[in-house]
Write a structure and sequence with these properties.
This protein is of the alpha+beta class. The protein has 17 helices and 19 strands.
Length: about 500
Amino acid sequence: MAELEGLAAELSLMARPGAVILLSGELGAGKSTFARAFIRALADGGEDFEVPSPTFTLVQTYTETRLPVAHADLYRLGSAAEADELGLDELAKSHVLLVEWPGRRDWQGFADVLEVALAGSGPTRRVGLTARGSWEKALRRNAEINVFLAGSSFTGATRRFLEGDASFRRYEVLERNGTATLLMDMPARPDGPPVKHGLPYSAIAHLAEDISTVVAINGELVSRGYSAPRILASDLTKGLAVIEDLGRAVYGRLILEGHDMAEPMAAAVEVLAHMARQDWPSQVAAGPSRSHIIPPYDEEAQIIEADLLPSWFWPHLHGTPVPETLRADYEALWREVLPLAKPQRPLWTLRDYHSPNLIWMPERQGLARVGLIDTQDCVLGHPAYDLASLLQDARVDLDAALTAKAFEHYCALRAGEPDFNRSEFETAFAILGAQRASKILGIFARLARRDGKPGYIRHMPRVASSLAANLRHPSLARLRGWFTRHLPQALAMK
């Protein structure tokens, strides 16, 4: 039974809402064993997590698991009509649905189905898997992961879900011989529809296309003494890597738990100031015969990101597309101010230098105390962008006195450098901070409206506050006027 439980736990790594698992087999074949192991893996609670049999309740739901789960047992039902009354169709829209004795009804109307046919008794079980929809893709990906791990020094590692989803990037914890590493599952990003000049958004905004960017960027950062995760094994063709585990002391979590952030924030500022003093390459090796070009954070990339606000935040508020004349005025105003934030000497800009992607490691020394993750969208840009990302966090509230002190700390560290002018830096900070806030309001609106993730709406007032603060800079007066006239909600939300 241990291998059956292991299979169930492994398949739980690929689960997502809307996925259906049909468990068939005679009494004692292991259907309940599989279901319990699957649910416990989603709960990450081991044997202590209680999974009662739904034989008498017919359906048992779980919301404390990583994904909501519904476990049904149709054994006692006499007809398909009785099965229909259980509301399984509705549950399957938002839950992972596991069904024992599925033959009591028809399942052709469900898109993502994995049939698990169990046979045998005693210590031996035979398992047949038949997949359709997203499960077919998930099984192929799981097989690729197993082959990749089997060919590395991490063969036999226990796999446990960490974060992400079944789309572009996800992570698992690998535990072997008491040591934890991370599996990074990052298949090549498919091109989206063309949005401008015949190009998809990802190409214009210079977003990472595959895992080679992570290998290249992290390798260079590590070589310079920064604490990006080291790459321990990789298959660039398959989009898989085993990377160093930097721990769970994520800045965002520490802030929410009420930790004193003075030292971690100062250290994060020192990393940025140190990066600003270095010369950064525009191309780095991603493997023995592969390289990655660091794209410039050019005006077209900044414009297409800022356009997320009229494209998504406006419809989020008004329910209708933004008038094209207003969109054109908005873009023209950005093109007026963005040249003021063009760097004399472009530097590596990570673009996601904020609380979810910084890890505090006080056991290390100096700059290495700050762990840097999600580095793949690095571009050559202005150093003010990453400082704005750090000090104007979109997801957690930062103490105003702390952020003011951190800004002063950065300026003091760079004072006297030939390419640092505080007045010009403050202008770039306001412009890029406003651009970033506009982009994030659009992203959060898109996540809520298109992707069915309304939880991001609660962060919008914080981002709107940052946008309003940035727009108070004199260089942004005309752009501030556009917001005041046409979209005042973006400057003040409750």
